[in-house]
Write a structure and sequence with these properties.
With 205 residues, the protein is an alpha/beta fold. 34% of the residues lie in helices and 13% in strands. The strands form two sheets. Strands 1-4-2-3 form a four-stranded mixed sheet. The chain has a two-stranded antiparallel ribbon with strand order 5-6.
Protein backbone atom coordinates (compact mmCIF):
# COMPACT_ATOMS: atom_id res chain seq x y z
CA UNK A 1 0.00 0.00 0.00
CA UNK A 2 2.82 2.36 0.83
CA UNK A 3 4.44 1.74 -2.55
CA UNK A 4 1.22 2.61 -4.38
CA UNK A 5 0.83 5.74 -2.23
CA UNK A 6 4.40 6.89 -2.81
CA UNK A 7 4.16 6.35 -6.55
CA UNK A 8 1.01 8.46 -6.61
CA UNK A 9 2.03 11.43 -4.46
CA UNK A 10 5.75 11.48 -3.64
CA UNK A 11 7.71 14.28 -5.30
CA UNK A 12 11.24 12.94 -4.89
CA UNK A 13 13.42 12.74 -8.04
CA UNK A 14 13.42 8.93 -7.75
CA UNK A 15 9.62 8.60 -7.82
CA UNK A 16 9.20 11.37 -10.38
CA UNK A 17 11.53 9.44 -12.68
CA UNK A 18 9.49 6.27 -12.17
CA UNK A 19 6.22 8.07 -12.97
CA UNK A 20 7.62 9.63 -16.12
CA UNK A 21 9.39 6.57 -17.51
CA UNK A 22 7.66 3.44 -16.20
CA UNK A 23 4.30 1.71 -16.20
CA UNK A 24 3.69 0.02 -12.84
CA UNK A 25 1.07 -2.69 -12.36
CA UNK A 26 0.34 -3.75 -8.76
CA UNK A 27 -1.57 -6.89 -7.76
CA UNK A 28 -2.41 -6.34 -4.07
CA UNK A 29 -3.16 -10.03 -3.40
CA UNK A 30 -2.43 -12.73 -5.96
CA UNK A 31 -3.91 -15.55 -3.85
CA UNK A 32 -7.24 -14.11 -2.69
CA UNK A 33 -8.60 -17.41 -1.34
CA UNK A 34 -5.51 -18.04 0.75
CA UNK A 35 -5.57 -14.50 2.12
CA UNK A 36 -9.22 -14.88 3.16
CA UNK A 37 -8.32 -18.08 5.00
CA UNK A 38 -5.41 -16.35 6.73
CA UNK A 39 -7.75 -13.54 7.84
CA UNK A 40 -10.24 -16.10 9.17
CA UNK A 41 -7.53 -17.83 11.23
CA UNK A 42 -6.27 -14.46 12.53
CA UNK A 43 -9.77 -13.38 13.58
CA UNK A 44 -10.35 -16.73 15.29
CA UNK A 45 -7.10 -16.35 17.23
CA UNK A 46 -8.10 -12.84 18.35
CA UNK A 47 -11.57 -13.96 19.42
CA UNK A 48 -10.34 -17.13 21.14
CA UNK A 49 -6.98 -16.36 22.75
CA UNK A 50 -7.15 -19.38 25.04
CA UNK A 51 -7.82 -21.84 22.24
CA UNK A 52 -5.49 -23.32 19.63
CA UNK A 53 -6.23 -21.73 16.30
CA UNK A 54 -7.06 -24.05 13.40
CA UNK A 55 -4.31 -24.64 10.91
CA UNK A 56 -4.55 -23.10 7.48
CA UNK A 57 -4.61 -26.48 5.73
CA UNK A 58 -5.67 -25.28 2.31
CA UNK A 59 -4.23 -22.16 0.73
CA UNK A 60 -6.82 -22.27 -2.01
CA UNK A 61 -9.99 -24.16 -2.85
CA UNK A 62 -8.30 -26.95 -4.77
CA UNK A 63 -4.75 -27.10 -3.48
CA UNK A 64 -3.00 -27.88 -0.19
CA UNK A 65 0.32 -26.14 -0.84
CA UNK A 66 1.82 -22.72 -1.41
CA UNK A 67 0.64 -21.78 -4.89
CA UNK A 68 3.96 -20.09 -5.53
CA UNK A 69 5.26 -23.60 -6.34
CA UNK A 70 3.02 -24.01 -9.40
CA UNK A 71 5.23 -22.10 -11.84
CA UNK A 72 6.30 -25.26 -13.66
CA UNK A 73 3.07 -27.26 -13.72
CA UNK A 74 0.73 -24.33 -14.40
CA UNK A 75 -2.01 -26.52 -12.92
CA UNK A 76 -3.88 -23.79 -11.05
CA UNK A 77 -6.08 -20.99 -12.35
CA UNK A 78 -4.01 -18.53 -10.30
CA UNK A 79 -0.82 -19.40 -12.18
CA UNK A 80 -2.50 -19.35 -15.55
CA UNK A 81 -3.99 -15.94 -14.76
CA UNK A 82 -0.56 -14.57 -13.87
CA UNK A 83 0.84 -16.00 -17.10
CA UNK A 84 -2.01 -14.48 -19.10
CA UNK A 85 -1.38 -11.06 -17.54
CA UNK A 86 2.33 -11.37 -18.28
CA UNK A 87 1.73 -12.25 -21.92
CA UNK A 88 -0.67 -9.33 -22.27
CA UNK A 89 1.62 -6.65 -20.81
CA UNK A 90 5.13 -8.14 -21.24
CA UNK A 91 6.64 -6.38 -18.20
CA UNK A 92 10.39 -5.94 -18.11
CA UNK A 93 10.46 -6.90 -14.42
CA UNK A 94 7.99 -9.02 -12.46
CA UNK A 95 8.42 -8.64 -8.71
CA UNK A 96 6.94 -11.09 -6.21
CA UNK A 97 6.66 -10.20 -2.50
CA UNK A 98 6.96 -13.00 0.08
CA UNK A 99 7.05 -13.24 3.87
CA UNK A 100 9.25 -15.78 5.61
CA UNK A 101 12.87 -14.71 6.08
CA UNK A 102 14.45 -12.49 8.77
CA UNK A 103 14.81 -8.83 7.88
CA UNK A 104 14.65 -8.10 4.13
CA UNK A 105 16.01 -10.62 1.67
CA UNK A 106 16.56 -9.31 -1.87
CA UNK A 107 16.57 -12.25 -4.26
CA UNK A 108 19.55 -13.40 -6.25
CA UNK A 109 19.26 -17.11 -5.59
CA UNK A 110 22.22 -19.43 -5.33
CA UNK A 111 23.89 -21.52 -7.98
CA UNK A 112 23.86 -23.57 -9.94
CA UNK A 113 21.61 -21.22 -11.86
CA UNK A 114 19.26 -22.57 -14.48
CA UNK A 115 21.27 -23.09 -17.66
CA UNK A 116 18.27 -22.26 -19.85
CA UNK A 117 17.98 -18.74 -18.46
CA UNK A 118 19.59 -15.94 -20.40
CA UNK A 119 22.77 -14.99 -18.48
CA UNK A 120 21.58 -11.38 -18.63
CA UNK A 121 18.64 -12.29 -16.40
CA UNK A 122 20.96 -13.63 -13.70
CA UNK A 123 23.19 -10.59 -14.06
CA UNK A 124 20.17 -8.31 -13.60
CA UNK A 125 19.22 -10.19 -10.41
CA UNK A 126 22.64 -9.32 -9.00
CA UNK A 127 22.67 -5.70 -10.15
CA UNK A 128 19.18 -4.97 -8.85
CA UNK A 129 19.93 -6.64 -5.54
CA UNK A 130 23.08 -4.56 -5.04
CA UNK A 131 21.15 -1.36 -5.72
CA UNK A 132 18.39 -2.38 -3.31
CA UNK A 133 20.83 -3.27 -0.53
CA UNK A 134 22.76 -0.02 -1.03
CA UNK A 135 19.68 2.19 -1.09
CA UNK A 136 18.05 0.54 1.93
CA UNK A 137 21.30 0.70 3.89
CA UNK A 138 21.62 4.41 3.09
CA UNK A 139 18.14 4.86 4.53
CA UNK A 140 19.08 3.11 7.77
CA UNK A 141 17.03 -0.05 7.20
CA UNK A 142 18.75 -2.81 9.20
CA UNK A 143 19.46 -6.32 8.02
CA UNK A 144 18.98 -6.03 4.26
CA UNK A 145 20.76 -8.97 2.64
CA UNK A 146 21.15 -10.91 -0.58
CA UNK A 147 22.81 -14.04 -2.03
CA UNK A 148 21.71 -17.55 -1.32
CA UNK A 149 18.50 -18.61 0.40
CA UNK A 150 16.58 -20.06 -2.55
CA UNK A 151 17.36 -22.42 -5.41
CA UNK A 152 18.44 -20.44 -8.46
CA UNK A 153 17.82 -23.39 -10.74
CA UNK A 154 14.28 -24.73 -10.16
CA UNK A 155 11.75 -23.16 -12.54
CA UNK A 156 8.80 -23.83 -10.26
CA UNK A 157 8.42 -20.42 -8.63
CA UNK A 158 5.74 -17.94 -9.67
CA UNK A 159 8.23 -15.39 -10.98
CA UNK A 160 9.41 -17.89 -13.60
CA UNK A 161 6.42 -16.59 -15.53
CA UNK A 162 8.87 -13.79 -16.35
CA UNK A 163 12.19 -15.63 -16.21
CA UNK A 164 11.01 -18.16 -18.76
CA UNK A 165 9.97 -15.46 -21.21
CA UNK A 166 13.03 -13.23 -21.53
CA UNK A 167 12.09 -10.92 -18.66
CA UNK A 168 13.35 -10.53 -15.11
CA UNK A 169 11.54 -12.34 -12.31
CA UNK A 170 12.63 -11.51 -8.75
CA UNK A 171 11.29 -11.26 -5.22
CA UNK A 172 11.70 -10.02 -1.67
CA UNK A 173 11.27 -12.02 1.53
CA UNK A 174 10.29 -10.16 4.69
CA UNK A 175 9.48 -11.47 8.15
CA UNK A 176 6.24 -13.41 8.12
CA UNK A 177 3.85 -13.07 11.01
CA UNK A 178 0.74 -14.48 12.58
CA UNK A 179 -1.45 -11.54 11.65
CA UNK A 180 -1.67 -7.79 11.65
CA UNK A 181 -0.33 -7.24 15.16
CA UNK A 182 3.07 -5.71 15.82
CA UNK A 183 5.37 -8.01 17.74
CA UNK A 184 8.98 -8.55 18.67
CA UNK A 185 10.97 -11.26 16.91
CA UNK A 186 14.17 -12.87 18.17
CA UNK A 187 16.60 -13.77 15.41
CA UNK A 188 18.99 -16.63 16.29
CA UNK A 189 22.73 -16.22 15.72
CA UNK A 190 22.57 -18.69 12.84
CA UNK A 191 20.49 -16.14 10.93
CA UNK A 192 22.67 -13.15 11.69
CA UNK A 193 26.25 -14.42 11.57
CA UNK A 194 28.65 -15.93 9.10
CA UNK A 195 31.39 -18.46 9.94
CA UNK A 196 34.17 -19.79 7.76
CA UNK A 197 36.14 -22.97 8.34
CA UNK A 198 39.69 -23.62 7.13
CA UNK A 199 41.18 -24.97 4.96
CA UNK A 200 38.30 -24.88 2.48
CA UNK A 201 37.04 -21.53 3.75
CA UNK A 202 33.52 -22.87 3.42
CA UNK A 203 31.06 -20.35 4.82
CA UNK A 204 27.86 -21.07 6.74
CA UNK A 205 25.01 -18.85 7.77
Amino acid sequence: MELAYRLAVEESPLVENIRKNSIVLITPVSEADGRDRAVDVYNYRKANPAKTAPTQIYWGKYVAHDNNRDGLGMALALTRTMMSAFLEYHPTVLHDLHESQPFLYVSTGMGPYNAWLDPLVIDEWQKMAYVDVEEMTKRGVPGVWTHGYYDGWAPNYMFYVANGHNSIGRFYETFGGFGADTGERTVPPSATSRTCTAPTRHCHG
